[in-house]
Design brief:
Length: about 210
């Protein structure tokens, strides 16, 4: 009887100490949380709402649309409706890769490294970013944690390193909890929280590419 009681107490202690994680590792979980939606069949056309361009919009219709404006802090100026539409598509495109394995130098569903996931997501919308997280950190404008928005890039300096070497994209903001999608060396493409101890310690900066 005593042995049974000890086993019960030990099991209860282990269960109560099991860490709760905000990591999202599959498209199914992301879909339930409203971060990801299944792609629409190819025979169904998606009609983008008509949007009046403001005079300050820097997109040029003659070449690549949504290309980075190198003459204006490397950001892209869009009105609210257009920006929201594009950011939602970027998040959905990145989230379609949830569960894909990590691969150094990878930019396809066979495997991504962190900058490869971000690069391949943005390039699908004709937004070309540098290939490394360190160079990406020099694009756009830096914003504070208090002013972070969905679609912003979030950068980290992993332990033992002296410069930025990891990047993700912000997918959700709830109070001081910022969630971001990234490709981690151990778990592949997942959604994590900045409040996780490791990322809280290694956080470096946030950049806005789409303004």
């Amino acid at each position: 009887m005593k042995n049974f009681l000890y086993i019960f107490i030990f099991a209860f202690f282990i269960a109560s100490c099991k860490p709760t994680s905000n990591i999202i590792t599959s498209k199914e979980i992301a879909e339930k949380k409203g971060i990801y939606s299944k792609p629409i069949a190819s025979n169904t056309s998606i009609k983008k709402p008509e949007i009046k361009k403001k005079k300050e919009v820097v997109l040029k219709s003659t070449k690549k649309q949504n290309s980075i404006n190198t003459n204006n802090d490397n950001d892209i100026h869009l009105d609210d409706a257009e920006s929201s539409y594009l950011i939602a598509q970027l998040i959905n495109t990145a989230s379609d890769n949830l569960g894909v394995n990590y691969r150094s130098g990878g930019t396809t569903k066979e495997g991504f490294d962190c900058s490869g996931l971000i690069y391949s997501t943005f390039i699908k919308f004709n937004i070309e970013l540098p290939r490394s997280s360190y160079e990406m950190a020099g694009k756009g404008i830096q914003v504070t944690l208090e002013n972070v928005k969905k679609g912003d890039l979030i950068f980290f300096i992993n332990r033992g390193q002296r410069r930025i070497n990891h990047v993700g994209m912000v997918t959700e903001i709830k109070g001081d909890d910022i969630k971001f999608i990234h490709s981690s060396t151990q778990s592949g493409v997942i959604i994590s929280s900045i409040n996780e101890p490791y990322y809280k310690k290694t956080f470096a900066q946030i950049n806005r590419i789409l303004e």
